[in-house]
Amino acid sequence: VASDRDEQWDLGQSVAISDDDKVFAGAPGYDGTSAACGAVYTYNINGTGEQKIVNPDDGNAIAAYFGWSIDTADGLIIIGAPGTRNGSDRNCGAVYLYQTNGTYLGKMQAPTIANNSYYGASVSIGSGRIIVGAHGKGDFGDPAIAPFGNGSVYVYDYNRNLKQTLRPSTSGSRYGYSVSMSNTGKFVVTAYFEPNKSIYLYD
Predict the structure, then answer these.
(1) The whole model's pTM is what?
(2) Distance of alpha carbon 74 from its chain centroid, rounded?
(3) Residue 116: alpha-carbon gap to chain centroid
(4) What's the rounded Cα separation, in Å, for the pair 187 and 71?
(5) How far apart are CA 127 and CA 144, in angstroms?
(6) Which segments within the chain are labelled E, that is strand?
(7) Any idea what DSSP says for residue 89?
(8) Hey, how many other C-beta atoms are within 10 angstroms of the C-beta on 44?
(9) What distance in Å separates the CA atoms of residue 187 and residue 118, rounded to the nearest whole number?
(10) What is the pLDDT of residues 120-144, one digit of tens each?
């Protein structure tokens, strides 16, 4: 339990545990200098040693929801902030890469930053790759059934170089709503709003 907890911070919205037995818990509603800029709390496996990773863009990160998504592998932790703004555009999204000891390595955003993309709403890491979902990316299709667009998924290496962009074949599918990487290099992507609630498997 966070020592400075507030029930509106949504501690535990996302959780992950590293190979070196560090526990990470997202609190995307955390209020820093900016309201709901977000934070991630880290603990030893026995619950001691609390530390807090605050959105590095705090001060200009209203409703960024840093900590909405988290994953960890290979001594790294990836943290999504899908509410991150770009000028007057909201919910463009961003993703931040750290070492599990808290060392900040850098920030990623979509190659084309767009309103309501929700880039970073889902993240996964492993096997040398970082997977980022942006389920609102692209045209909005039929707004009656697809208020969050088609969606895209971005594949990076650990140096934050974009290697691949994946997109759905069906309009308004919310492709990238969730993503998960295995330790064998395979990963899955959901398309939550497709008629059959499709799941895609990639090597």
Answers:
(1) 0.91
(2) 17
(3) 14
(4) 13
(5) 39
(6) 15-17, 22-27, 39-44, 51-54, 69-73, 76-81, 94-99, 104-108, 119-126, 129-134, 152-157, 162-166, 175-181, 187-191, 198-202
(7) B
(8) 13
(9) 20
(10) 999 999 999 999 999 998 754 444 4
